[in-house]
Design a protein that fits this description.
single chain; mainly alpha; 13 helices; 77% helix; disordered C terminus; EamA_dom; AA-Vitamin_Transporters; EmrE-like
């Protein structure tokens, strides 16, 4: 990898780590549903502008419906889960739990897609369960007694991410592929349309919202345009330059940045039990994602697919 690749990898981790901070600021002010809808809407607008500036040809080759459905599974539902978790959990908690995405992907692959798990990966799965247990049962957090529901919301989000990776391979990659920018645009279109009725209901019958909170608007714009639209393009560019396996290492870099931004901006602190649980989760993810030196020919034969966020 070139120095520029390392720099972009760190930049992407910093951006995605900041998304949990922005959700933590916006969700309590606007509500989980409103925040999520505005996030995907601004991401859609941002991607549309980028496609125009890049003069990218727009042709979905019959895969628009698949991309939109992926947007529901890979954006709308997990983003909503993280917005719900942000009502209760510090940003650092959500950032650490986001690292369980490869773990969930391994379990889904084994359960539903006939993927093989060797002893190394099974050890990672067991350690992941132990780490999550430590996070949810040790230490204290100012979540008003909602620690467990918040953790479950995050885990549901990472389950959606894990499932979306396999669906992307089945619906997009194995059907001839599609420009990653168009996949990202189509997914945010699908997410926006899916969330629109819920957003309309919240406006009509939900609790009153104070829309005049500048910090919340800045956070929603940032999480939509920067942490979603721009981050998607940066991530897919990394995949093209250094490959999906190396790009996946961003999973390990997001939690430190999530914790850092939460501490610097919101003064959040983490319990010792949480830190220990987070380290165990990171170790489990490394075991699940790392390769045990497969033969070169076999490694080239294995298809690798990005786990888009």
């Amino acid at each position: 990898m070139k120095p520029a690749d390392y720099g972009r990898l760190l930049l992407l981790a910093a951006i995605w780590g900041a998304s949990f901070l922005f959700m933590r600021i916006a969700a309590p002010a606007f509500g989980a549903v409103n925040t999520t809808f505005l996030r995907v809407l601004f991401a859609l607008i941002g991607l549309a502008v980028m496609l125009l500036l890049l003069r990218a040809p727009i042709g979905f080759q019959g895969k628009l419906k698949s991309a939109m459905l992926l947007g529901v599974i890979n954006s709308a539902i997990p983003f909503l889960m993280y917005a719900i978790a942000a009502l209760w959990l510090p940003a650092g908690y959500s950032a650490i739990l986001n690292a369980t995405t490869p773990l969930m992907g391994a379990l889904i692959g084994f359960s539903c897609f006939n993927e093989h798990l060797d002893r190394r990966k099974w050890l990672g799965v067991v350690l992941g369960v132990i780490g999550i247990s430590l996070i949810t049962t040790t230490g204290e957090v100012s979540a008003g007694g909602h620690l467990l529901p918040g953790v479950l919301a995050c885990l549901f989000a990472t389950t959606c991410y894990g499932l979306a990776g396999f669906l992307t391979r089945s619906w997009i990659t194995h059907r001839g592929g599609l420009d990653a920018k168009l996949v990202a645009f189509g997914s945010q279109l699908g997410a926006s349309l899916f969330l629109l009725p819920f957003f309309a209901y919240q406006l009509a019958a939900g609790p009153a919202v104070d829309w005049g909170v500048p910090t919340a608007w800045v956070s929603v714009l940032a999480v939509g345009v920067v942490c979603t639209a721009l981050a998607y393009l940066l991530y897919f560019r990394l995949i093209a330059d250094i490959g999906p396996l190396r790009s996946l290492t961003v999973t390990f870099l997001i939690p430190p940045f999530g914790i850092l931004w939460g501490a610097l901006v919101l003064g959040e602190t983490l319990s010792q039990g949480f830190v220990l649980g987070g380290l165990v989760v990171c170790l489990s993810v490394w075991l699940v994602t790392s390769q045990a030196s497969p033969p070169a020919v076999q490694a080239r034969a294995q298809p690798q697919d990005p786990d888009a966020r």
